[in-house]
Design brief:
Layout (H helix, E strand, L loop, with lengths): L1 E5 L20 E2 L2 E2 H11 L4 E6 L3 H15 L2 E6 L8 H5 L1 H4 L7 E5 L2 E3 L3 H11 L3 E7 L7 E5 L6 E6 L8 E9 L14 H11 L3 E5 L4 E3 L3 H18 L14 E3 L4 E2 L4 E2 L3 E3 L4 E2 L4 E7 L4 E2 L4 E7 L4 E2 L4 E3 L3 E2 L4 E2 L4 E3 L2 E2 L4 E2 L8 E2 L1
Parallel strand pairs: 1-4, 1-6, 4-5, 8-12, 14-17, 15-18, 16-19, 17-19, 18-20, 19-21, 20-22, 21-23, 21-24, 22-25, 23-26, 24-27, 25-28, 27-29
Antiparallel strand pairs: 2-3, 6-11, 7-13, 8-11, 9-10
Length: 361
């Protein structure tokens, strides 16, 4: 089987992290977010992953080469010269996706994290005999999304309702598809929306089916959702692979610590924290609901909550970082500095407190 991951975009919602790294390579739970998807695809027998991308393809492919060898899966790129939406990239990659097997292929959005029940999706697709299968998930506020209306017994999709003003259901498109090759005949090489143009036409012919996604789902393409997604993912690890999580008197709740990280004495870490490779957490540090990316250092008695510390950044002694502060790559926060929601661009030194949410350039 093959798969196409919709990378696209410039990752503007996740700046300043995406000023240093393409969004799919930004760390999530101590590895590039796109690697979560590639590993899940490998587990269900996918042998080739195609990245549909229009931004920094060389950086992406060079970075993923080592994982290509490690996982034994082919990773190629289909580069757009102009934005093609969510369907146009399939037409552009048509020759890569088609082969003599006639097998269906996966299509995934790159910034979605979930439990990846892809085996079940393959079985579901085979069972209904339609052209396309989509996963749907429940959300609390469906008015912010496009709702999928479908028969929950058969899975047959009736229609899509874009950002409904009235409550018509709470199942939305989760951004995970399994498509038969014949779907490609419906897509032209032009900017096209798979949600607004392609899926409604397949649904009108009663060939589109929806499967309810079990477990958690989160679009992690912006900082607040990234932190929420980390909580959901770590809770998933607790239920399914608890041995991967850290333990000890200094750990509270679910915490993921890379084996190469160094943690000092009398720290209190958790809940919902990821500490990446090569990080140094000095003594007396308090961390909660945050990510500390590889190579970062948090000095003595600093406190970080609900924030993201970028690669090779430093947080000074007794500093306090909170309220969705985002430190880009190589940011250095001085001793006793307070940040209340600051968004700091890469390679900056912060010597005075940031008292309200603002971008520091």
């Amino acid at each position: 089987m093959k798969a196409l991951i919709l990378v696209g975009g410039f990752g503007t919602r996740l700046r300043p992290l995406t000023l240093s790294m393409p969004k799919p390579l930004v760390d999530f739970a101590n590895k590039p977010m796109i690697l979560h998807q590639i590993e899940a695809l490998k587990d269900v027998g996918v042998t080739e992953v195609i990245l549909a991308i229009n931004y920094q393809p060389e950086i992406m492919l060079n970075f993923l080469k080592e994982f290509e060898k490690k996982l034994g899966i082919k990773i190629t790129c289909s580069q757009e010269t102009e934005p093609l939406g969510t369907a146009g990239p399939l037409a552009l990659a048509r020759d890569k996706l088609l082969d003599d097997s006639g097998d269906p292929f996966f299509v995934l959005n790159s910034d979605v994290i979930h439990e990846y029940p892809l085996h079940q999706m393959i079985d579901f697709h085979k069972s209904h005999g339609g052209q396309a299968s989509i996963m749907v998930t429940k959300v609390d506020e469906p008015s912010n999304y496009g709702v999928v209306v479908f028969d929950e017994t058969t899975g047959k999709v009736e229609k899509f309702v874009e950002k409904p003003k009235l409550f018509v259901g709470n199942k939305i498109n989760a951004g995970i598809y399994l498509l038969s090759p014949s779907v490609l005949d419906r897509i032209q090489l032009r900017p096209t929306s798979i949600e607004k143009e392609i899926f409604p036409s397949i649904a009108a012919e009663q060939k589109l089916y929806a499967m309810i996604l079990p477990g958690f789902w989160m679009d992690i393409g912006q900082p607040r959702d990234y932190i929420c997604g980390l909580r959901l993912y770590l809770d998933f690890l607790r239920r399914n692979s608890a041995s991967k999580l850290a333990s000890g008197l200094h750990i509270v709740g679910n915490v993921l610590v890379d084996e190469s990280a160094v943690i000092g004495n009398e720290c209190l870490i958790g809940p919902d924290v990821a500490i990446g490779p090569g990080c140094v957490i000095e003594s007396g540090v308090r961390l909660s609901r945050c990510t500390v990316m590889w190579g970062a250092r948090v000095k003595k008695h600093a406190c970080i909550s609900s924030s993201i510390v970028g690669w090779y950044s430093t947080v000074g002694r007794w500093a306090r970082i909170e309220n969705m502060t985002i430190l880009g790559e190589d940011v250095h926060v001085g001793d006793e500095v307070y940040s209340n929601g600051g968004v700091v661009l890469p390679h900056k030194e912060i010597k005075s407190s940031i008292l309200k949410p603002e971008i520091v350039m």
